[in-house]
Design brief:
The protein is α+β, with helices and mostly antiparallel strands and 461 residues long. It contains 15 helices and 20 strands. Its cofactor is FAD.
Length: 461
């Protein structure tokens, strides 16, 4: 047996939402846990997100008199991705995520609440839950604080570079590398891969998502696809590798995410010619490619003060306002001047929008404007581009979040969660339902941590 510098019952690679939820669950199961994080401070893709976790049947929904259920949530996921995700996995995560959020609130003090003043496309109920700032930075910071209070060790500036596997697929340990190039070996009883997908790996993006190969990457550069590459080398099954989340609303050039509430509440996107070019309401993920197809890969999101008030609950939107990215104008003419869009075309576009809303009609792109309030001055606009956020395909896992082989058998002590595991969005950008990324991070993270912790405890008994 190989000798290791140190051995720990449960090792977790990645300190984002998935990894930290896994760490808290494994610790609760009684196991000693070590989290490896390649960065100086845990941030990752979670910190770049809006920090909203969709969940159904929660106490926050009941308090707000929102009728919802895991089954309804699962149906929404399957409808958005036209039946392509694995139904068993969808059922697993939609049943698990609500209890996971209540656990994080009750056991670890995370102050979740449900958003009630707008709904993301594809969700049939208000089920987005977030912390007070509505930011991913707060979510990962609070999870890190909880881990530290629980006595969980987080080793930063430590990049896992190789797994050590026995003939039966059992992971005996791994090699990690420090910034100075020094390498250490680490033994483990169970390993959780929570190091996200491959969005930062240009080669893998070109291979699996060629339409966004030259797009702005708005995810974490450390998402190099190691989990997928390690898994494939071990003979693990992968699924839906082209699946991804894009976003058609990243403020350019400041690089700040603009909430899609600017669209769902009645805003539209126009290109540099002042014309609309799509059904913006279908979803922000598939909108990324549509924006990038426009001249210079640029669009303007046009909305008004009412919508800005709703968007203002998000810290990212407030940052964009502070950065001067959100323009204000008292008239369409002034808006055209501020955005340098052709006034005649913009005037015609917004007049048509007014007619559609007045009649409650559906436009030529298929967007229905029934019941959507009119835009009224003062107007707002923000210059945006499309971006790749994170990938949704990955390692196939079972209901215990154990990594499986193509024949369905599970590796003895290897787990995956979050972006390292195949998500529930199918193989297309259009299959991404808002919040799917943090859904599998939180739900599978807790499941993986519980499983790894119990396995490690059993091995030590």
């Amino acid at each position: 047996m190989e000798a290791y510098d140190v051995s720990v019952p449960v090792v977790i690679v990645g300190a984002g939402a998935a990894g930290l939820c896994a760490a808290l669950a494994a610790k609760e199961a009684g196991a000693e846990v070590l989290v490896l994080e390649r960065d100086p401070v845990p941030r990752g893709s979670t910190a770049l997100s809006a920090g909203l976790v969709p969940a159904a049947g929660t106490r926050w929904q009941r308090e707000a008199e929102i009728k919802d259920s895991p089954d309804l949530f699962a149906a929404d996921i399957m409808a958005k991705a036209v039946g392509e995700p694995d139904a068993e996995e969808v059922g697993t995560v939609t049943r698990a995520v609500g209890p996971a959020l209540e656990w994080l609130a009750d056991a670890h003090g995370l102050a979740f609440s449900v958003i009630t003043d707008f709904r993301y496309p594809g969700h049939s109920a208000n089920r987005m839950h977030g912390l007070p700032s509505r930011s991913g930075e707060e979510l990962v910071d609070r999870l890190r604080d909880a881990a530290e209070r629980a006595g969980i060790d987080i080793l930063c500036d430590a990049r896992a570079i190789a797994l050590h596997a026995a003939g039966d697929g059992r992971i005996a340990g791994l090699t990690l590398r420090r910034p100075d190039g020094a390498e250490d070996t680490l033994g483990c009883g169970a390993l959780v891969l929570a190091c996200n997908g491959y969005g930062g790996n240009k080669g893998l993006v070109r291979q699996h998502v060629p339409a966004l190969s030259d797009a702005l990457y708005f995810g974490h550069p450390g998402n190099q696809g190691e989990a997928i590459l390690w898994g494939e080398a071990l003979g693990a099954a992968t699924r839906h590798l082209p699946g991804h989340q894009g976003h058609g609303s990243v403020a350019h050039p400041v690089g700040i995410l603009i909430t899609w509430a600017t669209i769902t509440e009645g805003g539209v996107q126009v290109n540099l010619q002042g014309r609309r070019f799509s059904d913006e309401s279908h979803g922000y993920s598939e909108q990324a490619a549509k924006v990038l197809q426009q001249p210079e890969g640029i669009a303007w999101t046009v909305f008004d003060a009412r919508i800005a008030g709703i968007a203002g609950q998000f810290e990212d939107f407030r940052r964009a306002e502070s950065a001067g990215a959100i323009l204000e104008a008292e008239s369409v003419s002034a808006l055209a001047a501020a955005t340098r869009l052709p006034e005649a075309a913009l005037t015609e576009t917004l007049a048509e929008l007014q007619r559609l809303k007045s009649a409650g009609s559906t436009d030529a792109f298929g967007r229905s404007f029934a019941g959507i309030p009119q835009l009224s001055p003062p107007y707002r606009a923000v210059r945006v581009t499309g971006a790749l956020f994170h990938t949704q395909g990955g390692l196939v896992v079972d209901s215990s979040a154990r990594v499986t082989r193509p024949d369905g058998s599970a590796f003895p002590n290897l787990f995956a969660a979050g972006g390292a595991a195949c998500g529930v969005s199918g193989p297309q950008a259009s299959g991404y339902l808002s919040g799917n990324g943090l859904l599998t991070a939180v739900a599978l993270g807790r499941i993986a941590g519980r499983g790894a912790g119990a396995l490690a405890q059993g091995a030590c008994a």
